[in-house]
UniProtKB/TrEMBL annotation:
Protein name, as recorded: Universal stress protein family protein
Domain UspA: 2-157, 206-286
Coiled-coil stretches: 58-117
Record lineage: Bacteria, Pseudomonadati, Pseudomonadota, Gammaproteobacteria, Oceanospirillales
Family: Belongs to the universal stress protein A family.
């Protein structure tokens, strides 16, 4: 059965990931897996220092260094287990039953681990910054950017202070990517009952009003309360951010990246910019 996977680490974003995971589990009624990956680059490797100048004859020093590496490895594993346990407590406190949650710790590359198991992932939840970028405002962790480019499953980027959204914005441009995202939203229970602002932005929106009207009808036919808006402005990105602020939007939904090279350039640039600058959680659909 497909599951929700929430990536847990030692960054402040882990609390938001827990809140988002609890909300998503209750909306989707799907099993939830808490995942902590100990990257191979962070994991001490066994070192043979017998050939180093001055160390070959100091057996006791080599043994002490090896023991320090082993201790560090054990501490990192124990820290990861503790983080997963605390994350589960946070999520259970938000009403998710313990039998719906499992914990997994892996010694692997995060992207490789997710890609290997993506067939079983219904929704992936990550924070904007991991431990390495926790203090950098609006920085996007390398893991998040790599995962959004690689994984085909929906990805929810949780931000600090996450709460169940009262309204969401869906950026729509009439493209195949946007229509696929539209269908995914319409068919999923994740956002059912949440009012939708369906927004088209750009210089040529007048030509696309029929597409917008058809998209509105499709969502309404699936039970959504829909508000449409066209933002006829040259600069799409600040227009969307202004709309989010003025209408108290609490979640943004958009199609990500695209397939053709031109599409990857246009949509990919927009996706990357929103990863860095969105003031609200971002749901990326492929």
């Amino acid at each position: 059965m497909s599951k929700i996977v929430a990536c847990i680490d030692g960054s402040p974003a882990a609390l938001a990931v827990c809140d988002a995971a609890a909300w998503a589990q209750q909306q989707l009624s799907a099993p939830l897996q808490l995942l902590h990956v100990l990257e191979k680059t962070d994991y001490p490797s066994e070192s043979d220092m017998s050939g180093n100048i001055g160390l070959g004859t100091r057996e006791h020093l080599l043994e002490e260094l090896a023991e320090l590496d082993n201790q560090r490895s054990r501490l990192m594993l124990e820290q990861g287990r503790f983080m997963l346990q605390e994350a589960q407590k946070q999520i259970e406190a938000r009403g998710v039953a313990s039998e719906q949650i499992d914990r997994l710790q892996r010694h692997d590359n995060l992207v490789d681990s997710l890609q290997e198991n993506q067939a079983d992932i219904r929704l992936l939840i990550m924070g904007r910054q991991g431990e390495a970028h926790a203090r950098a405002a609006n920085a996007v962790g390398s893991h998040l950017e790599n995962v959004t480019r690689t994984l085909q499953q929906p990805i929810l980027m949780a931000l600090d202070g996450f709460s169940a959204p009262k309204r969401f914005l869906m950026a729509y441009d009439g493209s195949a990517t946007a229509n696929k995202a539209l269908n995914m939203v319409a068919q999923s229970p994740l956002l059912k009952g949440v009012p939708c602002h369906l927004v088209m932005a750009g210089k040529r929106v007048e030509r696309q009003r029929e597409q917008l009207a058809n998209a509105e009808k499709m969502l309404q036919g699936n039970g959504f309360d829909v508000t449409t808006a066209t933002l006829e402005q040259e600069e799409v990105r600040p227009a969307l951010l202004n709309y989010i602020k003025e209408n108290e939007i609490e979640l943004m939904v958009m199609g990500a990246w695209g397939h053709s090279r031109i599409r990857q350039l246009l949509v990919g640039s927009m996706t990357n910019w929103m990863l860095h600058n969105s003031p609200v959680p971002l749901l990326l659909l492929r």
